[in-house]
């Protein structure tokens, strides 16, 4: 038996081969590449060989990638030629792999490793055949043979194929979200922040945007998520104390006297929190990327990333204007959220017009209005001096890609223990007219929500 016949994925183990087989179903482009180079016998388990054969047979016959539902039907009625034990093994594998929440961990490594292995086997096979052709001086045939082997399995991702990817359009693909801890905000955003998305909290200095970010992180933490919180302004221990207060309800001033109670409460928290402190304007988005990679090497995979706050990051390159630098930072941040499939939250400071504004619209965003374009959700927090005295304020939904915007809610906000609640909206049926100028929008909002403003101040 030749070396090629003996080649297999056995050295990578069972989990690797099960993931590989699933990715051949899940990823059409990867599946097309593997179809050119994979010999199913490279898989050492019979149930995986048959599983992959069924995928390839469907692709060859119908010209489309089978969907999850189609594959379920194939495995239900298309295994009659196999013994009952093997049929059960194949179906059990498919049910198990679909319910495995960690199936996509190391996905790119599995795909790259398997493609590299198969392409090398394809090239080795071509070289062995070339040895025979060389004796016949068939140089043209050798050239074609080697070139074909080199091309097999090469990257051919030209994008979403309207015909070949037909089934993908009809699969359920709901957003994977993490709650904000506020029911009313979750309702209009379709469940909260979505993985791969970036949310921005806008507020002037001293209003409590960092408190809002802690609330969002603590909510995810209590839900069993892994949160990485980057701070560029406050000490890591200060941020940790705020999480203590938010989770336990103990006032910040009383934390030192309630150490045992806090420690006991935190034992019931299932999530993981990593707080990383960098001096102001020393860290870049590449610094965050490098830190996330180190965490990944330690087995820490975040579900949420909180950046407190993006305006305090240093740009990778110096631009002519500050607004251009900020735009680049926000674009890079959203890219990080997409790369790591996490929910992202950050904050932005308003200009001076927001200091005593009763409702903060996007016109008050400091320096870079264009950074709003990349964000998926933007809401502002406004609190006048009177609001702070009465633990009141307002949240304005400035942008919402997954639902309505232009809404104003009254809020309760007690910064002594990070207790923040969204109360009632004045009118959820109406929103700002996009045809109004910035000044007209501000006047419109103040007039429209006059009753709400008065009610929140009482």
Describe this structure in words.
The structure is a single chain. With 458 residues, the protein is an alpha/beta fold. The chain has two domains: 3-170; 177-457, 3-Layer(aba) Sandwich (Rossmann fold). It has helices at residues 3-6, 14-26, 28-37, 46-62, 68-77, 84-98, 107-135, 139-151, 183-189, 209-222, 236-248, 259-266, 285-297, 322-340, 385-389, 438-448, 450-457, and strands at residues 177-178, 193-194, 198-203, 226-231, 272-277, 304-308, 343-349, 377-382, 394-400, 408-414, 419-425. A nine-stranded mixed sheet has the order 5-4-6-7-3-8-9-10-11, with helices on both faces. It has a two-stranded antiparallel ribbon with strand order 1-2.
Strand and helix map with partners:
Elements lengths: L2 H4 L7 H13 L1 H10 L8 H17 L5 H10 L6 H15 L8 H29 L3 H13 L25 E2 L4 H7 L3 E2 L3 E6 L5 H14 L3 E6 L4 H13 L10 H8 L5 E6 L7 H13 L6 E5 L13 H19 L2 E7 L27 E6 L2 H5 L4 E7 L7 E7 L4 E7 L12 H11 L1 H8 L1
Parallel strand pairs: 3-7, 3-8, 4-5, 4-6, 6-7
Antiparallel strand pairs: 1-2, 8-9, 9-10, 10-11
């Amino acid at each position: 038996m030749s070396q090629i016949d003996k080649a297999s994925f056995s050295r990578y183990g069972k989990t690797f081969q099960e993931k590989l087989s699933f990715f051949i179903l899940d990823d059409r482009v990867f599946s097309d590449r593997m179809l050119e180079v994979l010999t199913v016998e490279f898989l050492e388990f019979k149930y995986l060989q048959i599983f992959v054969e069924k995928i390839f047979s469907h692709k060859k016959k119908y010209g489309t990638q089978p969907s999850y539902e189609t594959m379920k039907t194939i495995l239900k009625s298309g295994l009659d030629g196999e013994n009952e034990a093997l049929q059960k093994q194949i179906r059990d594998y498919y049910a198990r792999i679909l319910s495995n929440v960690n199936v996509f961990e190391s996905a790119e490594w599995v795909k790259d490793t398997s493609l590299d292995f198969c392409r090398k086997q394809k090239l080795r096979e071509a070289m062995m055949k070339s040895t025979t052709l060389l004796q016949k001086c068939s140089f043209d045939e050798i050239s074609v043979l080697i070139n074909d082997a080199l091309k097999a399995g090469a990257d051919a991702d030209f994008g979403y194929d309207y015909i070949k990817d037909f089934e993908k359009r009809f699969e359920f693909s709901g957003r994977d979200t993490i709650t904000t801890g506020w029911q009313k905000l979750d309702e209009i955003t379709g469940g909260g922040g979505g993985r791969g998305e970036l949310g921005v909290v806008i507020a002037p200095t001293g209003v409590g945007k960092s408190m809002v970010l802690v609330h969002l992180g603590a909510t995810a933490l209590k839900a069993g998520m892994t949160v990485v919180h980057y701070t560029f302004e406050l000490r890591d221990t200060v941020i940790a104390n705020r999480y203590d207060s938010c989770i336990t309800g103990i006032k910040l001033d009383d934390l030192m006297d309630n150490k045992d109670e806090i420690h006991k409460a935190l034992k019931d928290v299932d999530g993981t929190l990593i707080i990383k402190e960098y001096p102001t304007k020393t860290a870049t988005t590449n610094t965050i990327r490098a830190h996330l990679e180190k965490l990944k090497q330690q087995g820490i995979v975040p579900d949420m990333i909180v950046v407190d706050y993006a305006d305090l990051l240093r740009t990778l390159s110096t631009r002519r204007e500050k607004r251009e630098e900020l735009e680049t930072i926000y674009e890079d941040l959203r890219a990080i959220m997409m790369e790591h499939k996490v929910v992202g939250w950050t904050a932005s400071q308003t200009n001076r017009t927001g200091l005593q504004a009763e409702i903060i619209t996007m016109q008050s965003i400091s320096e870079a209005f264009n950074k709003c374009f990349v964000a998926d959700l933007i809401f502002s927090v406004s609190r006048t001096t009177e609001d702070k005295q009465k633990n009141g304020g307002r949240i304005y939904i400035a942008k919402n890609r997954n639902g309505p915007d232009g809404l104003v809610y009254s809020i309760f906000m007690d910064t002594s223990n990070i207790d923040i609640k969204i109360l009632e909206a004045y009118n959820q049926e109406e929103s700002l007219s996009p045809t109004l100028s910035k000044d007209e929008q501000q006047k419109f909002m103040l007039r429209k929500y006059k009753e709400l403003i008065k009610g929140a101040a009482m």
